[in-house]
Design brief:
homodimer; 195 residues; mainly alpha; Arc Repressor Mutant, subunit A; Tetracycline Repressor, domain 2; 2 domains; 10 helices; 0% strand; elongated; DNA-binding
DNA sequence: GTTAAATAGGAGCCCTCACTCCGCTTCCGA
DNA sequence: TCGGAAGCGGAGTGAGGGCTCCTATTTAAC
């Protein structure tokens, strides 16, 4: 399973280029264009990813891993109450990208659950720790579940796409979501101060 | 501009079938398949919509009109505070569909703004009246703008897609959004009771 | 009923795109 | 250094899909 040095290099370049191109132009770009962007022949691309779908999955799995890493890092370095909101802000800042990928995949008919099972579990765990500690400090409503949070993440991402480059609009939308995450009136503890 | 009777009938059938098929299978379905679903020859389809893109636009514009109608109707028949939340609930209940269409279009590279300009303006006006009256009664935060609301609508729709058929999850996600729409603490009037 | 115009239908054109095949190049252990 | 294995590249293939074009059919005015 040890790849030759040049093969490893090429694989990395393909993934990198594919991510860029796929995000910019959608899943409909031709594999040839991806290969060109990577500076690689089509044959090489298809050696590493025998199917266009597998290439897309590869890109997506990479993103999921990075997302989970971000979440774990924040969970350790920040106080629970703020960790979740920071994560949302941060994830959404790069969000056009992540959202575009999710949209790509669903529209391409790729079954996420079995395609990227392991990576998805990782994200789920990471968000779980983030969510549960935030709930324990009373910063976030207790009825929320991890799956809801993932949905909200995707939704926020999409909502913010509509704001385009208007930063104030982004902030207003984010404010709606972050306020909505807080426990409803009468269920707040002294810890649940607004950030 | 008066179409012959059979032409009018076929046009309607094409739009109806296209909406169904496009929503179910995405923009990548072949025009031939749409024609088959409509019980019509390909030639006929292309007479009515000279381009696949124009067909998709036709479907989308229809949806926008219906969405605007819903909003206007609610604005008249319901008290302002509840009208907006009812609209959100209702729009989102049929939301997988609407959202799927939006995703389709953006991923298909169709420029919504010039494609469906008029219809989009209509939606904007309808949501504007809904939003502004809700803001005047103090039921909704005053900083929100119509564009934000549209973004949030799309986002909510997408978030709820992730809930799948889990109705309780849907409700939890909706609760987050609806709570987030209310004015933040200290800016509420006596009118802004929770629904 | 007749007729001309409008419409329907579908075989086929052409182009794009995912993927294959194989001769050539590069790597790397001995 | 050198040999063979691993990797590279890109012309070519086959399938699929958007769209055209021309003939048969339907509509509706008189």
């Amino acid at each position: 399973m040890t790849l030759r040095a040049d093969a490893r290099r090429n694989r990395a370049r393909i993934l990198e280029a594919a991510e860029k191109v796929l995000v910019e132009r959608g899943t409909t770009v031709s594999t040839e264009e991806i290969a060109r962007a990577a500076g690689v022949g089509i044959g090489t691309l298809f050696r590493h990813f025998p199917t266009k779908e597998e290439l897309i999955q590869g890109v997506f799995v990479g993103r999921l891993h990075r997302l989970a890493d971000d979440a774990f890092r924040l969970a350790e370095s920040s106080d629970p109450g703020k960790a979740l909101t920071s994560f949302l802000r941060q994830a959404v800042a790069q969000g056009e990208v992540k959202n575009a990928l999710a949209a790509m995949l669903t529209s391409a008919g790729v079954d996420l659950h079995e395609a990227a099972g392991e990576a998805q579990q990782e994200v789920r765990r990471a968000l779980g720790t983030l969510l549960h500690s935030a709930q324990e400090t009373g910063a976030v409503r207790r009825d929320l579940e991890v799956a809801d949070l993932i949905g909200l993440l995707a939704g926020t991402s999409r909502a913010i796409e509509y704001a385009g480059s208007d930063v104030t609009a982004r902030d207003r939308i984010l404010a709606v979501i972050l306020d909505g995450l807080r426990p409803p009136d009468g269920q707040r503890t002294s810890n649940s101060s607004r950030e």
